[in-house]
Backbone:
C-alpha cells in the first residue's frame, strides 16, 4: 500500500477499436482522474490493452501516483516490460510502483494472465470505479463479487458498454472510380498505407493516446498516416510479415484500379489489406533509391534464395497468390527528401481529400473518386 493514498481502480471491458476524444469511455476516464486529483488517490492501471493504456496515459499526464500491474510470462519478461513501459509512457519512476502479474503455470498462459491481472487490481484497490463494463461479462462478475465482500464500488463515472457501430471494413465500387486514374498513376510504384490500430511506427504509446484524447475523430486513419508520411518526408520501415523480421518499405507496381480487387478486410488482423491512400515514386527514381522488385519463389524452394536477397523474397503462396501484388521493397526506412517533388504522387480516396492534401503539403495528389 502507498502510505497516505487511497488506491483506486478504473475498470473497463474491451472496447471497440479506434476511439477519439469524444468517445464516452475516454471522456469518463478523463473526468474520473480529474476528480481523483482532489482525493489524494493513487491509480491502479496496466499495459497491453487499449483501455488500460488510456488510463495509464491520463494518470501520467495528471501527475498522480501510478500502481502499474505488468503481465508477463516470467520474471525476465516482467523486467523487460517495465523498461519498455518507462519509455513508452514517459514514466517518472519516483511516482510509479510496478507490480508483477506472472502467468499461472497450470493454465493457458494468455487467458490466465489477463484474468490474474483483473483479480490482482481489484484485490489491491480500496475503491473501484467501473467506467464501461459489459453486462454478464467476467469483469462484471468480479466487480459484483468484490462488492459482496465489502469492496467500495462507485458508479459515478460509468457509461454503458456498447459494441461497434461504425464498420471498419469497406469496398470500393469500380464503377465510381475516375476513368483517368490509371493513366495518371502509370509512371509510379505506390506505397499503400492504411489505418493503424495503435501507434505509428516509432511513435511512443503515450503520444498515440494523447492524440486520441485531443481529436474529435480517430487520429491514425489512413489519410492522417499518409499526411504524416508526406510532412515528415519519411516512410518508416516495418518488419511485420517480412522474412527474418527484416524491416522494409513495400510498394506495388499495380495501378490504383488494378489494386481494387485486393482491397479486402483481414479479420485476423482487424484491418484492411490496403486502403485507397498512398504515395507514389516515379519508377526510374525508385530504382535509383534502391527499391527493388520482390523475388517470388515456390513454397518448397525457400532454400534457393540467396541470403543477400532474403529481405526482398516472398513465397508465391499456397492459398493467396502474392505475385498479384507486384510488390517492390526498400531495405530500411525510406527518406523521401531525396525524391524531387515532381517525382512524387499522393493518392487519396475522394477528390476533396486530394485537394486538401495538395494544398497543405504541396505534392501533386489524385483521387479514386470525383467527389
Residues:
Amino acid at each position: 500500500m502507498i502510505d497516505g493514498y487511497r488506491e483506486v481502480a478504473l475498470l473497463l471491458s474491451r472496447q471497440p477499436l479506434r476511439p477519439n476524444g469524444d468517445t464516452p469511455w475516454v471522456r469518463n476516464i478523463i473526468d474520473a482522474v480529474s476528480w481523483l486529483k482532489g482525493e489524494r488517490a493513487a491509480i491502479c492501471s496496466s499495459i497491453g490493452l487499449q483501455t488500460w493504456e488510456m488510463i495509464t496515459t491520463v494518470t501520467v499526464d495528471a501527475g498522480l501516483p501510478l500502481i502499474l500491474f505488468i503481465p508477463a510470462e516470467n520474471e525476465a519478461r516482467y523486467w523487460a516490460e517495465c523498461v519498455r513501459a518507462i519509455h513508452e509512457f514517459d514514466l517518472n519512476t519516483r511516482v510509479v510502483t510496478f507490480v508483477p502479474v506472472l502467468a499461472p503455470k497450470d493454465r493457458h498462459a494468455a487467458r490466465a494472465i489477463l484474468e490474474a491481472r483483473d483479480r490482482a487490481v481489484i484485490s489491491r484497490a480500496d475503491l473501484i470505479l467501473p467506467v464501461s463494463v459489459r453486462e454478464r461479462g467476467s469483469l462484471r462478475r468480479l466487480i459484483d463479487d468484490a462488492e459482496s465482500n465489502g469492496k467500495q464500488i462507485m458508479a459515478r463515472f460509468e457509461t454503458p458498454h456498447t459494441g461497434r457501430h461504425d464498420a471498419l471494413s469497406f469496398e470500393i465500387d469500380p464503377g465510381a472510380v475516375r476513368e483517368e486514374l490509371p493513366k495518371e498513376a502509370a509512371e509510379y510504384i505506390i506505397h499503400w498505407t492504411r489505418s493503424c490500430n495503435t501507434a505509428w511506427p516509432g511513435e511512443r504509446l503515450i503520444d498515440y493516446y494523447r492524440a486520441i484524447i485531443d481529436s474529435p475523430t480517430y487520429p491514425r486513419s489512413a489519410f492522417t498516416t499518409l499526411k504524416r508520411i508526406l510532412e515528415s518526408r519519411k516512410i518508416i520501415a516495418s518488419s511485420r510479415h517480412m522474412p527474418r523480421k527484416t524491416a522494409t518499405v513495400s510498394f506495388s507496381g499495380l495501378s490504383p484500379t488494378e489494386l481494387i480487387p485486393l482491397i479486402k478486410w483481414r479479420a485476423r488482423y482487424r484491418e484492411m489489406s490496403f486502403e485507397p491512400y498512398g504515395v507514389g515514386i516515379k519508377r526510374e527514381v525508385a530504382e535509383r533509391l534502391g527499391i527493388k522488385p520482390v523475388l517470388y519463389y515456390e513454397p518448397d524452394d525457400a532454400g534457393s534464395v540467396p541470403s543477400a536477397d532474403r529481405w526482398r523474397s516472398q513465397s508465391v503462396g499456397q492459398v493467396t497468390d502474392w505475385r498479384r501484388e507486384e510488390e517492390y521493397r526498400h531495405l530500411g526506412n525510406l527518406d523521401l527528401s531525396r525524391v524531387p517533388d515532381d517525382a512524387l504522387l499522393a493518392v487519396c480516396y475522394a477528390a476533396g481529400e486530394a485537394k486538401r492534401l495538395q494544398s497543405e503539403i504541396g505534392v501533386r495528389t489524385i483521387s479514386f473518386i470525383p467527389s
Notes: The CA atoms of residues 348 and 367 lie 5 Å apart. The two ends are 59 Å apart (CA to CA). Residues 6-153 form a domain with the Rossmann fold fold (CATH 3.40.50.450).
